Amino acid sequence: MTLNINGLHHVTSIASDAQQNNDFFTKSLGLRRVKKTVNFDSPDTYHLYYGDAAGTPGSVMTYFPFRNAGRGRPGVGEVSETLFSVPQGSLGYWKERLGNHGVGGLAETETFGEARLRFKGPDGDGFSLVEVADDARPGWTGAGGGNAEAVRGFRGATLRLRDGAATGELLRFMGYEEVDRQGSITRYGVSNGNGADVVDIETLHGAGMAQQGAGSVHHIAFSVENRAAQLEVRKALMDTGYQVTPVIDRDYFWAIYFRTPGGVLFEVATDEPGFDRDEAPEHLGEALKLPDQHERLRAQIEAYLDPITD
Fold first, then answer.
1. Taking the model in full, what pTM does it have?
2. Looking at residue 288, which CATH number applies to its domain?
3. Between β-strands 8-15 and 114-120, what pairing exists: parallel, antiparallel or unpaired?
4. Exposed site from 87, 121, 146, 198, fewest CB < 10 Å?
């Protein structure tokens, strides 16, 4: 059987400084901060979410900014690059804008026939802006620039693995199909998805394993419509032999997690209930929202967290 995955839901990474992370995504990349909350398991650390106007699944980059976290070491067994979709003809605008913001690692390339602008995040994170034709998703224009340039959401992500065969088989089980190959990279795509439709696997035989830290992706999440679809996915994965967590309530979606053959942590997240469950759409990301179990600690948490200036 194949599973009904809609594409990516979100990508969660690690940062070393909350203010720096906020400024990069809201000012340099022009995304909207759609939620300011805390790590469920470590409430002395923010969990920051950035995306389009509503935090639509397929657009949301999230971060755990662990104060003074050491830099991660690139290698295999990780998500090496997160790809954002932008309108065709907009890379010149983005090269100038990112350059004016002091963003490093700017390099224009072409992969699978798509023009892309590679760049680095504040902690060495790997990103690309990819020109995609006919991406009808609306961009967030509240941070400068117009809809003709605005980030639409994710294009996809690249996994860097020693051996991509087993993870490729997993992706096919999840509803992806192999659509192209270029050198050491194999592209998988999901049909009729949410726009965040591709996962690339770069195979590097014999390369060293990645070490997670600031600038590393912690996990990559895939979208399903609702909890019923998620339970179907969970059962199918477990029937195939994967060790999958119970369903976990993350306030803005329900989540399950499992480790892939290549070592990358996958999540399957629901599109419901969304980021407006506890804030009005026009005020997303403004107030510090705490999970119910941590609300009693609000005074201590607010005193400990570094303030974020918008």
1. 0.97
2. 3.10.180.10
3. unpaired
4. 146
Which tokens go with 294? 């941590």
43: domain range? 8-304
What tens digit of pLDDT does each residue of 18-39 get?
A: 999 999 999 999 999 999 999 9
CA distance 229 to 162: 31
Asked if 50 contacts 37 with a C-beta cutoff of 8 angstroms, the reply is no
- 275: tokens are 């980021």
- Tell me the C-alpha distance between 23 and 143, whole Å: 11
CA dist 177 → 5, 152, 265 (Å) = 12, 23, 20
**Strand ranges for 16-123 from DSSP E:** 32-38, 46-51, 60-65, 78-86, 107-111, 114-120
What is the per-residue pLDDT for 1? Answer: 62
**Would you state the structure tokens that stand for residue 19, as one six-digit string?**
């203010």
Give the number of C-alpha atoms closer than 13 A to the C-alpha of residue 52, restricted to the C-beta side: 23
Distance CA 260, CA 212 (A): 16
Do you know the residue count of the chain?
Answer: 310
Q: Encoding tokens for residue 227?
A: 């909890």
Average pLDDT, the chain: 97
Q: Mean pLDDT over residues 120-125, rounded?
A: 98
